[in-house]
Each structure stands twice: as C-alpha cells, then as structure tokens.
Design a protein that fits this description.
Blueprint lengths: L7 E5 L2 E7 L7 E10 L14 E9 L2 E9 L2 E9 L5 H4 L6 E5 L8 E8 L3 E6 L2 E2 L5 E2 L7 E6 L12 E9 L5 H12 L1
Antiparallel strand pairs: 1-2, 2-12, 3-8, 3-13, 4-5, 4-12, 5-6, 6-7, 8-9, 9-10, 9-11
Length: about 190
C-alpha cells in the first residue's frame, strides 16, 4: 500500500480488512492494482447469487462504494464512488453513474493484471493487462465516502461474496496513476 499511513490491518473470517480514514487521502482519487487468476469468471456471490465475487471493495455501508471490483457471470463489475438508492439487485446493476461492467470471457483461465484509476465526480479507467478497456472511461459517481473499510476477497466479512481464485499482489494508491505507471506496473506483473 503506497502513500497511506497508519493503516490498521485485521483479519476476520479469513478476509483481510484495512481501516482507511478520509484523512489518508483516498476520498477524491484512488488507483487499484492487482494480479489475479480467477478459478472461473462465472462467479456468483453467495448467499443470494445476485452479486459478484469480490476482488476488492472499499465501502462505508450498504450501497455506498468508493470502489467495488468483482466478477459476476463472465463480467467484470466496477463501481466507483457509487451510491445506490436501494439494496435491490436492479439498483446495483443499473447502468448509471458510478457503475460499469465488461464482458471478460476471453480471459477465462488466464492471469489478469487489473488496474483501475478513479476521480470522484470525474472519470474511471479500467485496464486489463496494460490495455484500457472500451469504453475508454466512464463517469465516476459522486458519493462522498467519509469512512472507508477496505476488504480484500469479499465485500465485507461474512458477506459471502468471496473471490474464487488466486491473488498474487495488490496495491491501493491515494492518487490516479499515470499511463507510464500503468505500463510499468503491467511490465512488473508480467515479470
């Protein structure tokens, strides 16, 4: 974890938890880097089967997500400063500001390097293996997440939306990575 201070790492139900406060500077910009090998891209979170298997989430409460990245039925779902109006599946998957999904079925059985950059009320870019996904960017939401808990491998402890696969490394930045840094990170992941 780069440029973040005073992080409290805890583990509950086998899920690493990072307590991240607004004062650490990720309220308005962030980047995420991880290299993963999903067991399958057709992941369905439990118990309802309506939500993605979570790679990483930074959230305040139900429906308020600074970031939520996961796989659901061969799609990569990315939430950025998203605030839902309800807890319904239709609300979370609506094509509105702060949410997008990509068909990633071509990556089945392959190692994936994911990098995501986001600005609140700005743009979010998603990269797989160094290449930006189309559409090139989408509009971030405007949710002002004051207190954030980051979880790796599940949305929240005991939530049951666990990522199924291997995670080789992960980094959370309090700024938007440059395109040169994205390329550097991808070259590092390949090595």
């Amino acid at each position: 974890v780069e440029a973040l201070k005073n992080i409290n790492l805890d583990v509950k139900e086998g899920i690493p938890i990072l307590d991240i406060a607004q004062s650490m500077g990720i309220n308005n910009t962030f980047s995420i880097y991880t290299t993963i090998l999903p067991d399958t891209l057709n992941q369905v979170g439990k118990p309802t089967g309506d939500f993605p298997g979570t790679v990483l989430a930074i959230s305040q409460d139900y429906g308020i997500y600074l970031a939520w990245v996961g796989f659901y039925k061969n799609y990569l779902h990315v939430y950025s400063y998203h605030q839902g109006n309800s807890y319904s599946k239709n609300d979370f998957y609506s094509k509105k500001t702060g949410f997008i999904s990509f068909d990633v079925s071509q990556y089945e059985g392959k190692i994936m390097n994911l990098q995501i950059t986001a600005r609140r009320s700005g743009q979010t870019n998603v990269y797989i293996n160094g290449d930006i996904l189309n559409p090139v960017s989408f509009n971030s939401g405007t949710a002002n997440v004051v207190y954030n808990v980051a979880t790796i491998g599940d949305l929240r402890p005991t939530r049951g939306l666990r990522f199924q696969g291997k995670m080789y490394d992960i980094a959370i930045y309090n700024r938007v990575l440059t395109t040169d840094e994205i390329s550097h990170n991808w070259n590092y992941a390949k090595s």
